[in-house]
Design a protein that fits this description.
alpha/beta, 7 strands, Rossmann fold, 7-stranded parallel β-sheet, globular, binds NADP nicotinamide-adenine-dinucleotide phosphate
């Protein structure tokens, strides 16, 4: 069976770069029209959208801070107004900041929870009624190894991603009767702008790669593939799961 998303509509949050951009492009390559969200980076989002249009797919580019409930809702409503349906949601938008416990500003905690966890609640809360009405859907939430095993100096980030995993399991059970399948993809280190501070330095990059059993750092496309699998018919019996995409670095 070939993977095909022809006639599907996919909403990807944080699609202007990194994992979100690679995922939007791969889903479009397999036939899906795309609702491409971003926060600030208008030019980068436009470039991703143009690449998708060149594939012959339709694209709606929509700026929204998905951590804000009103903006997330208007993103979903604009998508429905443009395409009539949303079949697949990839909740990918997120931030990764440093925070030492004992010295972490409350705002750092709050902005991470809002961007990484509340954003997913906001989008799901807005899109689920539409998916119920259209007879089903797929929701794929991007977590992290940090949400599985914790991460020193990033406890706020790890807590937000652990929350994503628990939220996913909860709504997967709740939405199964409606044929809405909800899963998590949990990446390890991925080469994107988010990790530039750690991976940009040759020595620390080598050390990180050496600590991963497969001895490589993931590309954004390495994460997009498992997301596509979860969005496809091949994954029709998978819900509430977390797919670890980390080169073997965290084994559960
Ligand atoms: P990235 O390169 O920093 O890109 C982040 C994307 O999210 C951008 O498109 C950004 O938009 C968007 N964004 C951030 N906050 C947003 C908000 N409030 N509303 C809407 N969009 C927002 O990040 P990445 O590495 O691709 O990471 C993508 C996801 O994977 C994140 O959830 C991250 O936590 C997770 N992850 C990454 C790694 C890694 O090693 N890179 C590992 C594990 C998990 P603008 O371009 O407009 O700013």
């Amino acid at each position: 069976m070939n993977i095909s998303l022809t006639n599907k509509v996919s909403l990807i949050t944080g699609g202007s770069r990194g994992i979100g951009a690679a995922t939007a492009f791969l889903l479009a390559q397999t036939g899906s029209d795309i609702i491409l969200n971003y926060a600030r980076n208008n030019e980068r989002a436009g470039a991703v959208a143009n690449a998708i249009r060149e594939l012959g797919r339709r694209v709606l580019v929509h700026q929204a801070n998905v951590g804000n409930a009103d903006e997330a809702r208007s993103l979903v409503e604009q998508g429905i107004a443009s395409f009539g349906r949303i079949d697949i949601v990839v909740n990918n938008a997120g931030i990764w900041t440093y925070g030492e416990i004992g010295a972490m500003n409350e705002n750092v905690w709050d902005e991470t929870m809002e961007a990484n966890l509340k954003s997913i609640f906001n989008i799901c809360n807005a899109v689920v009624p539409h998916m119920k009405k259209s007879g089903g859907g797929r929701i794929i939430n991007i977590a992290s190894t940090a949400g599985q095993r914790g991460e020193a100096f990033h406890s706020h980030y790890a807590a937000s991603k652990g929350g994503v995993i628990a939220f996913t399991k909860s709504i997967a059970a709740e939405l199964a009767p409606f044929n809405i399948l909800v899963n998590t993809v949990a990446p390890g280190w991925v080469d994107t702008e988010m990790t530039e501070s750690a991976l940009g330095d040759g020595k620390s990059r080598e050390e990180i790669a050496a600590s991963i059993p497969l001895h490589r750092i993931a590309t954004p496309e390495d994460i997009a593939g498992p997301v596509l699998f979860l969005a496809s018919d091949l994954a029709r019996h998978i819900t509430g799961s977390t797919i670890s995409v980390n080169g073997g670095s965290v084994l559960l």
